[in-house]
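Title: Prediction job returns without error message
Component: structure pipeline
Severity: low
Priority: P3
Assignee: unassigned

Description:
Job completed but the reporter wants confirmation the result is attached to the right record. Sequence as submitted:
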Amino acid sequence: MKITIIGAGNMGGALARGFVAGKVFAANDIICCDRCDDTLDALKKDLPGIGVSKDNPKAVQKADIVLFAVKPWILPAAAAEVKDFLDYKRQLIISIGAGVGTAKLAEIFIRQDGSLPELIYLIPNIAVEVGAGVFLYCTANAKAESLALVQKLFSKVGFAKQIEEKQMEAGTALASCGLAYAFRYIRASMEGGVEMGIYPKDAQEIVLATIKGAVQLLQAHGTHPEQEIDKVTTPGGITIKGLNTMEESGFTNAVIKGLKAGK
């Protein structure tokens, strides 16, 4: 199976690297297209054998999957450039342009004869590069076999889940934007550790290990976070004092407002 990725920037490049590392695709079964020579050179260096191209129409023709990893406002032009070279009966089209839903994708890809390819709207996050991505996807016309293929491929490099299209905006905030929010919490915890006398590198190691442990506890036990909080919150102890101080400063409300602002 072969895939062509149109747009090899941060997200497109992360997908390519993740696919190879996770053995989803061999490097020589991937073609990445981009306008920037430096971007393509970096991919060739990192992934020996990968195909790179600036000729998008030629690059899509032998692919089984064509994945558009371009900015939403670039997608119409990128699609128009290759639309006449796509095989709608054979190829699966995936777009990761945030906010460009299935109805808009149909407008972009429909041909004059009314034909459409199978279309998947997918939101990834950049942790795919290390095999820990989150992928939320929906469709209006893809067949069950294609959906099963998407689930199988992306599950090899993280967590994949089909959701209702009306949930995609919220899912984007949680999974795609959510990485940045998690990083911001990590940074804040590190700064607090430094203020209390721990060296920055040591603080980062401690915070990362702590977060990893928290995630593994929730996954192993299948519990709600509050149940795990109760286990480490002694009445009158330092943990409840810290939690209450965070809430006084608007911690939970700030997180919720940040997520909703990203919709």
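Comment from assignee: result matches the submitted record. The beta strands are 3-6, 30-33, 51-53, 65-68, 92-95, 118-123, 133-139, 158-162.
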